[in-house]
Amino acid sequence: MEVMNKILSGSDATNRRLEFPAGSLWAFPMPHGQNSVEFVASDIHEQQWRLKVSVRNEGRYSKPWLKGEWGDYVHQKQLKKGDRVILTMNDEENGERIYRISAERMLFGFWYSIDEQQ
C-alpha cells in the first residue's frame, strides 16, 4: 500500500530532513504523548534505512518531518529537486509492518528507477 509519493523540493534534497505529507501520517500511529515514531524501510537492494517521522508538539499544524538516515539516503541515491520518492507499507500476517522506499527520476517525460541505475 502506498504511504507517500512525493516529488522532492530543493530543501528535501539538500537538508537532512524531508517535509513529510500530513496525509501520510495514518501509516505511523504514534503512542499518546509522543511526537515521533522510528521505522526501517528497505530499498530495492535490501539496504535498510532507519527513518523517523516527527511532528511538532506545538502550533496549529503538526508539520511532519522525515528524518533519521534521510540525508544518507539522499546522498547515496544522489537525489535532487524534482526526483520522486515512494514509500510503501505492507502489513504481514504476523502483524509486522514492512516498509519499502524507492526513488525515481524523470527523463524524457518518463519516471525511471534511480535504484536500478546503481
UniProtKB/TrEMBL annotation:
Entries under Gene3D superfamilies matching the protein: DNA-binding pseudobarrel domain (2.40.330.10)
Organism: Salix suchowensis
Descriptive protein name: TF-B3 domain-containing protein
Superkingdom per UniProt: Eukaryota
Localisation per UniProt entry: Nucleus
Keywords: DNA-binding, Nucleus, Transcription, Transcription regulation
Xref: CDD domains: B3_DNA
